[in-house]
Specification:
alpha/beta, 13-stranded mixed beta sheet, globular
Length: 362
């Protein structure tokens, strides 16, 4: 029931539900959204005036974040930029560690050589970054300035990536990258709780670069980005990795395969559609809550559904896969992980922003 409520709210907040009852609910939530918007405007204004203090780190800070709740593909973008920077710099990611048991503490997840924590401790996204990008340093902490100082003392990075940092104004950043979903960049236009926006849409003026994610093959930049450098990007599934190890399955598959697909991410619709476009017949799809931990109840739903629909294999995301590695061979052997790759149509605005920042900071 919780999942259906979550799916209903997201469709409402994205503007996909527009019936009389839906409009009435928006009107009921609107006063709360107006108060929330006012608070966010005041907060941003206090930081801009210096009344609320922003702290600096002794190395360049690149923030990657969004203005809406979930679903814009921050982790693949962070991974892409980290790999670009690693061609000449020691890179450390500063993440909140959402969903991990150590959330709120300042802890080193990876020193670039050894991953010291598991996903249950540091959260699935920091763990995924640490385990899939060799040499990447990852530190978690709700106070990203304190986490950055810990990284300076123990790891000595050349540059920081502030994961999900657009609203984390307590840490001064040298480059502010904002991600917007190309199809519905601001949802229904309302802030929480009536819409998806974390703060009023005018906050995009803080962005130095905008990356439109989930773009079609040919897409024009959104009018709201006029005057701000922008890139169009999409996520592509490049292969399927067996959960328990082994050779990846290259894509597209030579023949359609009957599969069950599941995901515990903010908006899995695009993931499911991508699988269909690759020739998979999705016998059934399961949408779990974002950051699902995959206890026995969720696992029972998955494997009962596979038997019911006679699925040959279950496919999920790499992000979900980090929490499934402890499965036995008879269960884990039927699960494959979709490995995503970020494709940017014209990466020159991104490259120019990075080059200008790092040259000026030398």
């Amino acid at each position: 029931m919780k999942d259906s409520y979550s799916a209903y709210w997201r469709n409402l907040a994205e503007g996909r539900r527009t019936g009389p009852g839906d409009r009435m609910l928006i009107l009921l939530l609107a006063p709360f959204s107006l108060v929330y918007s006012l608070v966010q405007r005041i907060r941003a204004g206090l930081f801009k005036l210096g009344i609320l203090k922003s702290n600096s780190l002794p190395r360049p800070v690149i923030s990657i974040g969004n203005i809406t709740v979930g679903g814009t593909g921050k982790t693949p973008v962070t991974a892409h930029i980290a790999r670009l920077l690693q061609q000449g710099y020691r890179v450390a990611v500063l993440s909140r560690g959402y969903g991990g048991s150590l959330e709120g503490q300042n802890v080193v997840v990876s020193d670039g050589a050894t991953v010291m924590l598991g996903p249950s401790e540091c959260g699935d996204e920091p763990y995924l970054l640490a385990t899939t990008i060799p040499g990447l340093m990852v530190v978690i902490g709700s106070d990203r300035h304190a986490a950055g100082l810990l990284a300076m003392r123990q790891l000595s990075p050349d540059v920081f990536l502030l994961d999900d940092g657009f609203q984390h104004l307590r840490l001064r950043r040298d480059l502010n990258i904002l991600l917007l979903d190309h199809s519905r960049p601001f949802g229904n236009g309302w802030t929480l709780p009536a819409g998806l926006l974390r703060e009023p849409a005018g906050a995009i003026k803080r962005a130095d670069l905008i990356i439109h994610t989930r773009c079609p093959q040919v897409a024009a930049a959104h009018p709201a980005t006029a005057g701000t450098p922008a890139c169009n990007a999409r996520h592509r599934i490049v292969d399927l990795q067996p959960l328990l190890g082994g050779d990846p399955l290259p894509l597209p598959c030579p023949a359609p395969r009957k599969v069950l697909a599941f995901a515990g991410i903010a908006d899995p619709a695009g993931f499911f559609e991508e699988l269909r476009s690759l020739g998979f017949e999705l016998l059934h799809t399961i949408r779990f809550q974002d950051h699902t931990t995959y206890d026995e109840s969720e696992l029972s739903i998955i494997f009962d559904s596979m038997r019911q629909h006679r699925a040959e294999v279950a496919i999920t995301t790499e992000k979900d896969g980090v929490k499934l590695r402890g499965l036995s061979r008879d269960r884990g052997g039927t699960i494959m992980l979709a490995r995503l790759e970020l494709v940017i149509d014209d990466p020159s605005p991104l490259h120019e922003c990075l080059r200008n920042l790092l040259q000026n900071k030398r």
